[in-house]
Design a protein that fits this description.
Length: about 160
């Protein structure tokens, strides 16, 4: 069973990488009246909040999805990342969009999936130093993770 943390306090600001405007959730979840933000973190192994954060978006075993409402973690779930198929690196993009994800924090990502995530309205943050899912969530919450710039994407 994946390691998860439920009901703990955390906050995340979902901002679109374009023009620093509010992201798909349209809110700053540090405010008590904020709407739900669904943050995905590429994860290793079985996922969960104590899992190792995967270094690269498309090569992760799964995504740990943290639901944050009104600044508090309301739930954690794990979504398996299937192997690359005919849709290649856009498969995980479609998976996250269909799973209701509104924000993602990565340590690396290719240009094609980054463009797909942006087109799907998913805010993408960059933070290469985090080693666990909890650290990645905290990096977004604290503002240490910044909206990713297209030139930071790798050539994949």
């Amino acid at each position: 069973m994946p390691n998860t943390t439920r009901g703990t306090s955390a906050t995340v600001v979902a901002k679109s990488p374009a023009a620093n405007q509010p992201g798909p959730s349209g809110t700053d979840v540090r405010r008590a009246d904020s709407r739900l933000v669904v943050l995905a973190v590429p994860s290793e192994g079985e996922g969960g909040t104590e899992a190792q954060r995967a270094e690269h978006f498309g090569r992760c075993d799964c995504f740990t999805v943290v639901e944050i409402d009104g600044g508090h973690v309301k739930g954690v779930r794990v979504v398996a990342n299937p192997p690359h198929g005919s849709d290649g690196c856009l498969g995980p993009v479609r998976l996250l969009a269909s799973s209701g994800v509104t924000a993602l924090v990565v340590g690396g990502i290719g240009a094609r999936p980054l463009a797909g995530l942006r087109a799907a309205g998913i805010a993408v943050y960059f933070e290469p130093r985090c080693t666990t899912v909890n650290e990645a969530v905290e990096a977004v919450r604290s503002g240490a993770a910044c909206p990713i710039e297209p030139q930071w994407a790798c050539g994949e």
